[in-house]
Design brief:
Immunoglobulin-like; 2 domains; three-stranded antiparallel beta sheet; 2 helices; globular; DUF4249
Amino acid sequence: MKQLLLLITSILIVSSCTEKMDVELDSTYTRLSVEAKITTDFKKHFVKLSESSDVFFNQDAIPVTNATIQVNDGTSNFSFEETSPGYYESSTEFSGIPGKTYFLSILNVDLHHNGKLESYEAQSLMPYPHKVDSIAMNYDDNYRNEGNDNKEYWLLSLYLKDNKENEDYYGFACQINNVLVHDTITEVVIAEDTFFNGEASKGVEVGFFDQEKPDEIIRNNDLITLETYALTEDYLDFVNELQFMDMEQIPLFSGPPANIRTNISNNAIGFFAVYSITRTSTIVKVE
């Protein structure tokens, strides 16, 4: 278990830290920053566009407006509408279909405000969802966390049979009473199946509830839900690179640094993420 945890990294969304962080970017020109996600959830999906340059990352990025955005899965075409500056939602609700490749098209981008319109493309395959057998919650009043502090934690253990035919890539986040509490870069966990490829996991710890954090306190009869993400290898690699940029200091809307990988064309930064979600729940009994 401890070996697996060495591979665990943290992904997604943002931290609440507001300390200035001077990150080295390519200062020769502004680039398009893209955050785009398609999942198996039936909802309106989003694409977020902004400008990226070598600025202190506690400043809000400049939104990129008036773009034309479409997503195609080879059968259906989904148009996106700008609902706020730089934020685009699909005009209809839909759910991604595992096994299909999704194509993102971003047109009519006047990034340099000179009337010259640019276009960007990306594609990603949606993996099939992971099948989870069960989850369990365990209390530890002296758990040693990543900061080498011994603290009071509730730990969520995962039980599943890994698919030996594939190299699988996992992401994990937790809800308490239908509220996603592990939604920051430092809280959402990802892992490869290196240590249980084709085997049954026997209670791998993938959820961590710090009882000193108000939004993570566990009470009797709380409904705990594990979100298990089926990621592509490319997205896992992208996320791993984000970890090394000390992303816990980067606040909302800042966009990723320019020297990590991307699947967006035309020298953009960011990622078009496509993944399946499996949700598994349990009721906590506090003695």
